[in-house]
Amino acid sequence: MTRIISFNMNGVRSATSKGFVPWLKRSKFDVVCLQEIRADVSQIPEDYKSFPYQYWNPATSKKGYSGVGIISKTKPKKISTQFPNKIVMDEGRFIEAQYEGFCAISFYMPNGTGSEERYQIKLQVMVDLFIYLKKKTENGEPFVFCSDVNIAHQEIDLKNWKANQKRSGFLPEERNWITKLIKKLKIVDAFRSLYPEKEVYTWWSQRGQAREKNVGWRIDYHFVSSNLEKKLKEYKVYKTKFFSDHAPIILDLKN
């Protein structure tokens, strides 16, 4: 079995202070894809030095912002932080690791709620990401794309869908982008493939007791190439303890 965990940390230092590292050591992970580390490499807590293979891509355009990382049990064949979009590069939103049999991608999609400019940036990133993943599917490359995409795909993926129809994160063009990944590229939403009708959320607002009331959104995903769908075994959203406003999501693949 191969276990791939994805997690938006909302700050590596914050998540670490809440006990993330001891949990991760117990999690039996093979690969961990992290988003929103919000730290330079020099600011990564000492706790992570116990993991032999760790790779970080922080934002260079703004301190304490965005950034992604990958931790793995085995050494990757290759690590890349090159992505064909300047904003993604400057804001440290992409890292990819090549392993035996598949590649793992950790990606942090821009949030489109701040301004019209940021929404347009998000739309362009979506276009460039579609092209990037299209090339991989055309090449038959097995991949696991782990991401906070800041989009809930279907009504089942957020509690208050009616009230959010005009909000970035649930706009038709954003939702249609995920539909295109699934229908045109045959990319698989791993959770929804295993649990077509299950209502589970991965992010909760820090306002209005959203977490206590379970008023959430499912915006964190494992998307897998179609040639890995037959290997899907189990999927969990870890909510026993919270290290962030997101929950770690755990995908198990058959070997």
Please characterize this protein's 3D structure.
This protein is an alpha+beta fold and 255 residues long. The protein has one domain (2-253): Endonuclease/exonuclease/phosphatase (Deoxyribonuclease I, Chain A, 4-Layer Sandwich). The protein is built from 6 helices and 14 strands. The chain has helices at 12-17, 20-26, 86-90, 116-138, 172-183, 190-194; strands at 2-8, 31-35, 53-57, 68-72, 78-80, 94-99, 102-108, 143-148, 188-189, 203-204, 216-217, 220-224, 232-237, 249-253. A 6-stranded mixed β-sheet has the order 3-4-2-1-14-13. A 6-stranded mixed β-sheet has the order 5-6-7-8-12-9. A hairpin with a 2-residue loop joins β6 (94-99) and β7. The longest helix has 23 residues, at 116-138. The protein is globular, with a radius of gyration of 17 Å. The termini are close together. The relative contact order is 0.17.
